[in-house]
Amino acid sequence: MTASGLDRVVIVGGGVAGLTLALALRRAGIGVEVHEKFGHLQGRTTGFTIWSYAIQKLTSFGLDRQKLDRIGTAIEVTELRNEDGTLLGSLPVGDASRELGAPSYDINRRDLQETTIDELGADVVHMGSECVGIELGDDSATVLLAGGERAEGDLVVAADGIYSVLRDEVAGTSRLRYSGFAG
Question: How many domains does the chain have?
């Protein structure tokens, strides 16, 4: 048993959050498995910014900088412009990132997921493995999978997004409200 009292964690959801958690848990010596309901990566092939402090965490979890360089572009300057293109100001992101010890990156979401899945391995990430429910025990939790399989751990983490299968079972019925923002 690890110092945290956890030997095995089951993560439902193979997005950036679930996969990053899997990297962190594995680095801490905790057994982990990820179940993603889709047999392929979901979401748009959009990019997003990962700031220096988060890059430091990702590298401490085992993603090396060479891999990050292949899937992202280090940011040197961020410019703020108005609707007609007039420069309002610029931020020296590269300088600040170097002071903090790691670059900040614009990264393609799908590339980050693919790289993280490769790092974790097919024995950890189970694509096309849909969670349909959960059974909670005194010292364990078991994910019920659509194919009749079961995945047991000391802890189950629901990282399966806005349409979470586990949310209502664990936290009670919740009413989702649109915030006015879309990603």
Answer: 1
